[in-house]
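> run fold Spore coat protein, CotS family
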Amino acid sequence: MMREFEIERQFDIKIETIKPNKGVYYLKTNKGERCLKKISYGPQKLLFVYGAKEHLNKSGYDRVDKYFLNINGEPFALVNEDLYTLSEWIDGRECDFNNKEEVTKAAKNLAEMHLASRGYEPPENSKLKSDLDRWPHLIDKRSKALEKMNDMARKKRDKTEFDMIYMKALNFYKDLCKRAKNTLNTSEYDNICRESEELKIFCHHDYTYHNIIIDKNDEYNIIDFDYCKREIRVYDISNFMIKVLKRNNWDIEFAKGIIEGYNSIWPLEKREYRILLSFLIFPQRFWRLANRYYYNEVTWGVNTFIKKINEIIEEKDEYLNFIEKFKEEYKEEE
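> ok
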């Protein structure tokens, strides 16, 4: 149980109202509205996240949920061995991923954040979080995991409907893994990683609708930097693009809107499109869903898993059509 008086003492505030809100707490305090969040990682990682937000602010990008410091100048409270952060409560609504205009503005906003991230030096005693140079390894590892989960399904005496659907669909997604790997291996991925390291940029790593808050002034704010790390910017773009496209029947116009919006602020280089294509081909959602199912990562019922895997499989034709249109639009070949 969270001890409110400890939060008040360590952050030097008086809590007037506290309400749970989507995994965090909304606080009304004597110093204004705040967001209280229990975090699941240690203080060294938190210092990296804190430093990243401070860096953005100093670089002129201030539309983030800035952390408040405790009475000892640290960005957390320690209560019963749990870490809590206190940040600004940004009032507004979530970005509508079915609205092309909002999606394009969100892409501009992402480019502005990436530009401001350049030159980030993490604070002393923080843990450097980085996925630079890791994608060839991750594609191999996740491709092998798909095979391993297939073995797990095959060896079950009492197979579920999910197992049967997974085994039947597997070959298609294994083929996508090979295509993604070949595309990445024939790109300038290594050079782009090296240059990103030199630029010292970072990515948000979870740039999705509920982390993009549009305020009353129509400004686009970014919250929840928990997963931010050193990474090439194309990762954020591809991740954002997939989250938008799956909601819009893989409509190439939404992808073009994202790229146009992003390029209006910080244009992608020609060689980055090949890496983007590789990330779009890799079946990340299929792998993640299977991983959650076979390793009990979430407590969904089996029917939820069946519904989700069927949704991914049913969009196969639209997805393949999108990949071909993307290659044609941006003059890429596999």
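The chain has a mean pLDDT of 97.
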